[in-house]
Amino acid sequence: MTTDTGSPALRQAQIRRVRPEDAARMRALRLEMLADAPLAFLETIADAAARSHAEYAARVAYTSRGADTAQFVADPGGRFVGHAGGTVAPREAGLTVIYAVYVTPTWRGTGLLGELIEEVAAWSRACGRPELLLEVVVGNDRAYRAYQRLGFEDTGVRVPHPTIPALTELQMRRPA
Which of 23, 28, 33, 69 has the most CB atoms within 10 Å of its CB? Predict the structure, then answer.
């Protein structure tokens, strides 16, 4: 449970795995994520907005159960304010790849990022995968430093951004 005592009102958000009934709130958060940080995610806001509610609902239902992929949200009881996903790495046993990490601007600096990552880590360990990997766009120093504070280390591996050829991503790892 995240609390932010630095704001005028005490705020709390429950960190939990998505549920099938979360589709509309996940769509709203996804559109916010893409508007706020368009280079960090693998689709455009136009593509995400064009996707039907049924497509969102199917994705949320799929990631709400099982050991292959999961999505976790920060839920203060209204609009979601954070997200982190995890998925199995097909070519490396014991590894969970973290994806689509986001904290809405007004909740940044509250510890919410760490709580989301820890929820993915706990799920990863429960699935028998003791290591985490994530990728950060080179030059996104704010995210890089935040992940370092959470124990991630730069592996030195650089990979092309999957959708924007001019960008490069760096890989970071840590125990789950």
Answer: 33
